[in-house]
């Protein structure tokens, strides 16, 4: 159909086309409505919003990138955070940000962006901000940067996006952002209280305030979270200009723990035994202690996220979920100790595994914890659950039942993750991992070096590391 000659000008002027009604139809519609018996709630949302699909996608892919970078960033600090509660909560937050990234990624695929393009997105300004944020001089500064500066800015930006986008045509984005904000609220609340605890415990408040102001100015200089805010001058100097950020390699624990790394055997570390070595009571306590000491697994999987960053988003996501699982296992062990009558801090904390894995290339570190540690748990946990049931030990039966389900999932996901980390055949990867752990355990004094000593077997490493 040919348009009128002036239709082009009307389109350019965005002229509203007047409705053409037919006689009697409006009156008939009004009569049908008057006779309709149901008075449903009226949806007052109106069409109209600030963003086109293109602009919406531009913002969402930056949001995705920020969430992905926070996931990686927190992972890089898991070894370095000493405080028990902060390390556990960080393991949880790693997954919350990973899940936010995944939610945004899925929405972007609905707005004409393919996953490879989404995953390939990079932003040098964001990277520079993240590296400066990671150059925090203490865990307290890290929380200020991640949560009180960037996290709060993200939450505010998400709420503004919800208000500004079209509530009808872009309803899926609104739902996605609201789901993400459901995790942000408890994260930010916890972080504020944690920073207050640091200050009450002696961390200088003025130093944290200076760092907060510094990062706030840096974030403003890159257009804020959306990249569209007015830009100010970047602060100088930046810490990363003086020393580029590098993740830590040495595991740290807070002063409440008495730690050891010269052995994986709890009785050897304690220099005495509580129960006969092979008794149910000894096996039970060893299992509970092992779960509490899964704090080293938070460190392992968090570090892997950083070390393989940008290789494969799905691998990062799976590692983030496993990190959260290990944080829960640590909580399970801690609470099971309390339920068993122990002060968790009276039982020594093992650093053996993290001490070896921290400086190690990620593929070998992952192979140790996945092929030896988690597979080793699955070899014995069925008998443990059955024995606990026979003895009416509901506490151990309950927690080990959930842990078994998690470990099965981890072993399955780990196979794919190892394929991303290394091109070695599994047999070669396992052997080289055994070599490296043998060398490490010798250096720690966990085993004595013998001129004829062979590389430790899988079973020997499982026993000596105790995972």
Tags for this entry?
single chain; mainly alpha; Ribonucleotide Reductase, subunit A; 2 strands; 467 residues; 2 domains; two-stranded parallel ribbon
Quick overview:
This protein has 467 residues and is mainly alpha-helical. The protein has helices at 7-12, 25-35, 53-76, 84-109, 115-119, 124-134, 139-164, 171-200, 205-221, 239-242, 266-270, 280-292, 295-307, 313-339, 352-357, 362-390, 394-421, 426-444, 458-465; strands spanning 259-260, 349-350.
Spell out the blueprint of helices and strands:
Layout: H1 7-12, H2 25-35, H3 53-76, H4 84-109, H5 115-119, H6 124-134, H7 139-164, H8 171-200, H9 205-221, H10 239-242, E1 259-260, H11 266-270, H12 280-292, H13 295-307, H14 313-339, E2 349-350, H15 352-357, H16 362-390, H17 394-421, H18 426-444, H19 458-465
Parallel strand pairs: 1-2
Q: What value does the average pLDDT take? A: 92
CATH topology of the largest domain: Ferritin
Kindly estimate the percentage of residues that lie in beta strands according to DSSP.
Answer: under 5%
Shape call: globular
The helix-and-strand class reads mainly alpha
Evaluate the radius of gyration.
Answer: 28 Å
Name of the level-1 CATH class of the largest domain: Mainly Alpha
């Amino acid at each position: 159909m040919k348009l009128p000659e002036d239709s082009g000008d009307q389109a350019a002027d965005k002229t509203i086309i007047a409705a053409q009604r037919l006689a009697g139809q409006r009156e008939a519609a009004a009569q049908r409505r008057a006779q309709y018996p149901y008075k449903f709630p009226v949806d007052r949302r109106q069409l109209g919003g600030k963003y086109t699909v293109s602009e919406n996608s531009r913002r969402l892919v930056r949001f995705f990138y920020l969430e992905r970078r926070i996931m990686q960033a927190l992972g890089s600090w898991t070894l370095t955070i000493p405080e028990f509660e902060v390390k556990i909560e960080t393991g949880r937050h790693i997954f919350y940000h990973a899940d936010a990234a995944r939610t945004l990624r899925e929405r972007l695929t609905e707005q004409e962006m393919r996953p490879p393009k989404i995953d390939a997105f990079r932003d040098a300004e964001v990277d520079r901000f993240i590296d400066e944020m990671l150059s925090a001089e203490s865990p307290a500064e890290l929380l200020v940067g991640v949560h009180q500066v960037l996290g709060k800015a993200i939450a505010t930006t998400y709420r503004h996006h919800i208000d500004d986008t079209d509530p009808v045509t872009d309803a899926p984005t609104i739902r996605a952002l609201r789901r993400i904000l459901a995790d942000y609220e408890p994260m930010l609340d916890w972080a504020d209280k944690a920073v207050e605890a640091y200050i009450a415990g002696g961390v200088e408040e003025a130093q944290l305030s200076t760092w907060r102001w510094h990062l706030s100015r840096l974030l403003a200089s890159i257009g804020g979270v959306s990249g569209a805010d007015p830009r100010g001058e970047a602060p100088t100097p930046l810490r990363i200009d003086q020393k580029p950020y590098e993740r830590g390699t040495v595991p740290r624990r807070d002063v409440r723990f008495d730690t050891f790394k010269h052995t994986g055997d709890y009785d050897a570390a304690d220099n005495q035994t509580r129960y006969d070595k092979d008794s149910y009571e000894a096996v039970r306590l060893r299992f509970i202690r092992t779960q509490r000491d899964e704090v080293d697994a938070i460190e392992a999987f968090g570090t892997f996220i950083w070390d393989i960053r940008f290789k494969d988003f799905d691998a990062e996501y799976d590692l983030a979920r496993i990190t959260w699982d290990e944080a829960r296992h640590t909580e399970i062990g801690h609470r099971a100790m309390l339920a068993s009558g122990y002060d968790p801090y009276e039982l020594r904390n093992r650093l053996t595994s993290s001490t070896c894995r921290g400086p190690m290339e990620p593929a070998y570190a992952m192979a140790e914890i996945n092929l030896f540690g988690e597979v080793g748990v699955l070899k014995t946990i069925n008998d443990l659950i059955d024995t606990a049931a026979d003895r009416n030990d509901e506490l151990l039966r309950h927690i080990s039942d959930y842990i078994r389900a998690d470990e099965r999932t981890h072993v399955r996901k780990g196979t794919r993750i190892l394929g991303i980390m290394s091109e070695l055949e599994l047999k070669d990867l396992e052997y080289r991992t055994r070599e490296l752990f043998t060398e490490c355990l010798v250096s720690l004094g966990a085993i004595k070096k013998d001129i004829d000593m062979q590389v430790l077997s899988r079973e020997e490493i499982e026993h000596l590391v105790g995972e």
